[in-house]
Amino acid sequence: MASIDDALDRVIDSKTAALLAREFELHTVGDLLRHYPRRYADQGQLTPIADLAEGDDVTVVAEIRSCSSRRMQYKQGTIQAVVIFDGTRTLNLTFFNQHRLLPKIFTPGRKALFAGRVTTYGKKRTLQLTHPRYQLLDGDADKLAEFARLLIPVYPATKDLPSWTIQLCVRQVCDLLDDPEDPLPAQLRAQHRLPELGAALRAVHRSDNRAEIVAAQRRLKWDEAMAVQLTLARRRQEVARRPAPACPRRPGALAAAFDAALPFTLTAGQREVGEVLAVELAGEHPMNRLLQGEVGSGKTVVALRAMLQVVDAGRQAVLLAPTEVLAAQHARSLREMLGDHGRAGELGSAEHATRIALLTGSLPARARKQALLDVASGAAGIVVGTHAVIQERVSFADLGLVVIDEQHRFGVEQRDALRARAADGTSPHVLVMTATPIPRTVAMTVYGDLEVSALRELPQGRSQIATTVVPVGEKPSWLDRVWQRITEEVAAGRQAYVVCPRIGEQDATGEDTEDSADGEVGEEGGRPPLAVLELAPQLQDGPLASLRLGILHGRLPGDDKDAVMRRFAAGEIDALVATTVVEVGVDVPNATVMVIMDAQRFGVSQLHQLRGRVGRGSHPGLCLLVTDSPPGSTARERLDAVAATADGFQLARLDLELRREGDVLGATQSGRRSGLRLLSLLRDEELIMAARQAAAQLIQADPGLTAHPELARLAADHLDEQRAQFLDKV
Ligand code: ADP
Ligand code: MG
């Protein structure tokens, strides 16, 4: 008998076991049983010879009619011509240099499976298989029966390891298998009507009944969902138990001064979320919260108010932005809004004042040293920096709150690394903000350690953004109209962005694009994507000659970037030709037009983010998606979808459908190695929700899962795989 932990080479022949290990990293019986069929073929679906077409990868069952061998005419070696017959038609097979073996085993009347790619030869384009893999069926009634099953599992396979070999191994394993202990508690199984693990494993590989297979798959998805959710529930509990730097509100101090200086009234949502944060910051255990809100919903203000409460309590808050441009913008607006309250130590500064340190990679050495000193001494209550800040060993005097802005790629592990930065044994409060409206199930996986708040309304007076696709392939003259539109807006006192997928000058090496670009920037159809450094001079010498143009991209030195942004914000630049550095967070309410060149090169969510840069003031926004993708192409359909809806949620879902889930989640959370084999974050929302609830209950009642060792093991295995992935990356 065999158990799930047995090494495969104890159960099946060692040569095949070695192949399974090499090709798929399958080492134990359990590994093999979790190598699920990709699909199931009806026995009749084994392709009849009559249906073969050139180029198909096929498997046929047939009887051998003849096998002859001859010398090749112009070369060394021999050719074996084999004719097979499936009851209706014959097919020719060609092998080379097998004259010793084949005539012996391919005797007329024997049956076999043949798999390979259909090719043709001769003027008549006669179909054939060249060097197909084969599996003899006769002489072994058992094997014949195996492949005569009603449903034949089709496994992920490789050239050296065909599906039928895996099928035979699985069968051997299943015959010997002792039913494994079931990790899911009986009560949970009963509640959700899930078959037992042993039965489910057998069914998923060996059932002839599709309904039974679906039930088995659902059960096996539960294992995957529970592993993830238990890990997350445990992490939530662990973090929630740590002591945190308590930051109670202090009336009449910085936070109050900031509120008094606000040029607008907070929306109801901002006030509500603000209240939740204020209470949690005052608590003894760390806040761990995700703030979701559409582009322009006013998340930053919410975060700033939270940071000031922390500073008022005598501690420090750090705000991490994904780009230097954004970090500089945050620091600038903070300083503006705080006025005298943000200039501690300077002449005429106000009571309770603090200092704001800006820490970015491109800071000159002296300024950087000063900033680091201010952070370490505690003189700076507020630290604004790029995510890179945490990579360096910045030491804080007393870190109370970490705010992570606009970064949906910032994973669980990275947040953990930050949490470790607080003073002795405490864990800082964490607030993550994102405008990427992530589908709920994805949020629960990537952000599963966080509670979620949302800003659902946009501030009053926010205008609509009209989006139009400009198909320059069919209507080249429309491009002139685009530049005319910009000129009109500028004449009316407004400003514009022109975004290109590439920086330029260097050839399209890939380095040439912005890091933050997560679209499909790259070579496509031979033409390199439009570049900022190429387009800007063309515009300046041509259609936009009368305007003041500025250039912004990631390769500019930090100071220059900041200067350009300043001048744009001050209205000294009419139109900014930029890369996706303006994608997130950039806030210039007077900008009303966003032109996106080669729009098909960007992802759906990215386009939505980009257009969120306009329509932020009282004037309506206009977004023009310029593309030469032909009508009816997938690229064009995506752009039409973006133009058709302003609903970020719907677009995020579309994005997820269009890309592979793995791309959205990053390597850590997706794919075979992370343990998600059957579970789909998109299609199994209900199941994941139920598992989340079940996991939370189990962990609450029994944090160590001592009553459920098998379940604990399931979660631990999952965590190991995740850790391994994480370590791979750093
Ligand atoms: P996001 O959620 O995209 O980060 P921001 O915080 O950048 O949004 O806010 C967008 C703009 O709206 C900013 O100019 C900000 O000052 C302004 N804003 C924020 N809250 C309000 C409000 N309650 N009323 C009016 N304007 C607001
Ligand atoms: Mg923002």
Structure described in brief:
The chain is α/β, with parallel strands linked by helices and 730 residues long.
Structure description:
This protein is α/β, with parallel strands linked by helices and 730 residues long. It folds into three domains: 8-189, Nucleic acid-binding proteins (OB fold (Dihydrolipoamide Acetyltransferase, E2P), Beta Barrel); 254-455, P-loop containing nucleotide triphosphate hydrolases (Rossmann fold, 3-Layer(aba) Sandwich), CATH 3.40.50; 465-645, Rossmann fold (3-Layer(aba) Sandwich). Helix content is 39%, strand content 18%. The chain has 26 helices and 21 strands. It has a seven-stranded parallel beta sheet with strand order 11-12-10-13-14-9-15, sandwiched between helices. Strands 16-21-20-17-19-18 form a six-stranded parallel beta sheet, with helices on both faces. Strand 3 and strand 4 (90-96) form a beta hairpin. Helix 11 (268-281) packs parallel to helix 12 (299-312). The chain is globular. Residues 507-511, 515-525, 660-674 and 726-730 have low confidence and may be disordered. It binds adenosine-5'-diphosphate (ADP) and magnesium ion.
